[in-house]
Amino acid sequence: MNILAFESSCDETAAAVVQDGRQVLSDAIASQADMHAIYGGVVPEIASRKHVEVIAALTDQALAQAGIAKPDIDAVAVTYGPGLIGALLVGVNFAKSVACALGKPLIPVHHLRGHIAANYIAFPSLEPPFLALCISGGNSMLVDVRGYTDMSILGATRDDAAGECFDKIARVLGLPYPGGRPMQELARGGDDAKYPLPRAKMAGNDLDMSFSGLKTAAVNLIHNAQQKGEALDRSSLAASVAAAVSGELVPRAMLAAERCGHHTVVAAGGVAANERIRADLERACRERGLRLFLPPLKLCGDNGAMIGCQAYYEYLAGARADSSLNAYATLEI
Hints:
333 residues; alpha/beta; 5-stranded mixed β-sheet; 10 helices
């Protein structure tokens, strides 16, 4: 089954052709990161307009790379939430048009389900059930993946996401956007214990997270040093931030896996590319005898292949959409 999939939830436009949920025939991506870098973050209006400009040509590119003619497409899939509403609408409306023109079924896909599915591409042997740690610029959550389309949230951030924490602190440090990679590079060689930063404990659900206090503490530390004319060990601060973020995520992931009785842990999303978090996850899983699946870096960020992969399982589960399909800025997994 050949699925033409679209992803446009933020600042990457992506089109891919995926066969039978696991084989990626093409994955074309147009990133806007350089364009938004001058603003220090994604500007939704600009993102939406750029999606409009490139999505048609990107579709032709994906089909050409796959060696697939339009009549050979069996279904069309698209991310319909969560994300920037204007950006999502571009992908949803384009996908509806393509599905209508080709006379093919339309499959709606949740963005975070797609991130989890990226692991199926990288690891053909991986099957549910497992515990998924979904960490990105807009979301941080622990997901009980009981089946390909049977999932529930065990814990999530109550405010900022882990990726947003990295981005905002990077911006105050004068690092380029997106801030994840520059923060990681700055952290190398730093002392991760030099700057004590807060870890949150959430009442009501000890699997829930909070990153706003950590972000504020780091930003205040930077501003205080600037105002007092004191030297700031930028490398150690970046390392301390990474340690604090990982300290929020990894222990909760281990606790969630234990409570669910899962022996497999999967990471997903852009922040899953972070070296410190990957290393801490590997160590924690090794100590507990758990299997860990970390997606390759190229599949951590937004892409169309992950949407095409998850779409296959959504299709088998009976998920279909018609011309009334809408986009949603927030959407339960």
